[in-house]
Amino acid sequence: MGALSHIRVLDLSRVLAAPWATQILGDLGAEVIKVEKPGEGDETRHFGPPFINGPDGTRGDATYFLAANRNKKSVTIDFSKPEGAALVKRLARRAHVVVENFKTGALAKYGLDYESLRNENPALIYCSLTGFGHDGPKKDKAGYDYLIQGMGGLMSVTGQPDGAPGAEPMKVGVAVSDLVTGLYTAIAILAALLHQARTGEGQSIDMALFDCQAAGLANQATNYLVGGMLPQRLGNAHPNIVPYQVFEVADGHLILAVANDRQFASFAKVAGMGELARDPRFAGNAERVAHRAALIARIEPVMRRHGVEHWIALLEAANVPCGAINRIDQVFADPQAIARGLTVAMQHATAGAMSLVASPLRLSATPPEYRCAPPLLGQHTEEILQGLLAIQATEIEALRAKGVV
To answer: What is the pLDDT of residue 56?
Structure first.
């Protein structure tokens, strides 16, 4: 039994940040009921190609949707209609947690805001995830990962430095602002569940992409707030550690991640440049940061003499952190990925067997569960309405005829 097997989550969210959080809860055993609009569903079902295909070759959901929606049951309800809003309220009465990511205040007109649902279920945890939160001058502004990467400072420190070829602010290759927010959201919900279990009290949770991205600036934020340094784009270099970047080698590129003076001395020795560790400009990390350009100019031609495998063998033997830059196919073929079981086989309702990325959570007593593949749109509507709300089949058909479900 999963750690959250006693928890029911009503998931009114779409796209990535909030679904990422609810998938984590589902992996940990929670029953997650995903409410989607009839005939449309979560936008990410259409974020393709690529798409999955049914046995007859008909196009199914985009593979994007599969990334954040396993261990969920899909129920189609149009809560813009009074009958649909009433169904969602009934589901909320039977839930421990509600998660939504509509624009600030958007659900109040349907009676699905926190204050309304708290009246239905005083112990309810209501998590709202928006771009900028429920207060402040931007509270009504829509939030998308790309915008948040820019507005939250991440793109200002990502990309080649000014003057270098291809220099411009650059987004990260995955929606990292969404993902970081999803992780913070899951943590907040878990904390609220502990409080709920101890006191019987619910609460509201106000999560904002902008806030989470600012928190995710980590050392770059304290470089500015405490150190007075305004971080700039450095390409693949590190603002606080040198040499800690990508180097061109004879057959590609290699990451060299020298994090302390001992490692630097070891690197200099095996690279045939032992004198660098004795040079007062490079002996300590602070000095290496101050003389970054001079040091990198010494290292670059030496690194180009040999290929990736040569350098990895040499440096790992000397306990110098380094690594190849793998394509995604190489990631999942890596013996370490195979040993750790980084993919999980699941059976999709129409596409059949598929591999998804496994949860990275490793718990000895309550490990993640893989109960069901990402659902078809409305796959569990009858199951939930009949089993949880005791609605008769004839009433469901009447609701379907009205476009409510």
So the answer is: 84
Residue 280 near residue 255 (C-beta atoms within 8 A): no
**In one letter, which amino acid is 123?**
A
Q: How far is CA 334 from CA 173, 213, 254, 354, in A?
A: 21, 31, 17, 19
Rounded distance, CA 63 to CA 280, Å?
53
**Amino acid sitting at position 275:** E
**215-244: per-residue pLDDT in tens?**
999 999 999 999 999 999 999 999 999 999
Domains of the chain (ranges, CATH numbers): 8-216+359-401 (3.40.50.10540), 244-325 (3.30.1540.10)
What whole-number distance in Å separates Cα of residue 161 and Cα of residue 155? 12
For position 1, what pLDDT does the model report? 81
What are the counts of helices (DSSP H) followed by strands (DSSP E) for the chain? 17, 13
**Residue partners of 24: CB distance under 8 A and separation at least 6:** 182, 183, 186, 359, 361
Catalytic residue among 42, 61, 178, 211: 178
DSSP 211: H
Q: What is the pTM of this model?
A: 0.94
Radius of gyration of the chain (CA): 25
Q: Any catalytic annotation for residue 206?
A: no
Tell me the C-alpha distance between 8 and 198, whole Å: 17
Taking residues 11-39, report their average pLDDT: 98
**What contacts 188, CB < 8 A, 6 or more positions away?**
127, 205, 207
C-alpha distance from residue 215 to each of 267, 287, 323, 344 (Å): 33, 29, 28, 31
Secondary structure element (H or E) that encloses residue 232, with its range: none
For residue 156, the 8-state DSSP code is G
On the question of pLDDT at 374 being above 90, the answer is yes
